[in-house]
Give the backbone structure.
Amino acid sequence: MRDHSSRPNERGRNANSILAKARKACALTASEEVVLLEVLNAAIRARRDYEDEHDETKGRKRKRVPPTHNVTDRQGDDQPENESEIDVSTGLVRKLPLLIHRFGSKPETAAQILRLVQYVKLDKYDELRQLEAFESLLEDVGKQFMNHTDSSVFKEASASLLHAQKFESLGYLTEPKVIELQDEVNLTFLSMVNGKVPRTLTFVDCRI
């Protein structure tokens, strides 16, 4: 997913170079970017389904194998040489910041990227010792929620935060970020209505 738009516009001779023309021809339109991200989402979802089924099958095989079973007799098991090569979560942990930075400015593409967050086994951040990256991810999700007015972004951002809350081992990082977002939404709401809130409505009542 090369970002052709990140290179400054060529001028003079560079504008007429073969390379510049090739970049211009290969650059995706807005609608093409959305389609590309939809395909990426479908591929990631299919891969996660495969991984989950693969892990479940391995678990059943381990239960059936006697303790004295020779390791050489298990060559038929479908075990990858390097788990990280097929681990979707590991790949997304590394690529999500780039994808959010690249596609987070438009609601159509931002929603697609936020949906990818929901395919990540978030405890992978702990396993990879990337807890700061996890906090940054939560902040990015919150920023997407606040920076857009599109319902699809709200839906996917909310789903991503609910997904994060399922991982209890990361709750000490997730909950403060969720509360921080709630407070920011409350303040934004109160500033929009200019304080014209019913007297019976407390600040706590405004919590989403």
Helices lie at 18-26, 30-64, 88-103, 107-117, 123-127, 131-147, 151-165, 171-192. The mean pLDDT is 81. The two ends are 36 Å apart (CA to CA). The longest helix spans residues 30-64.
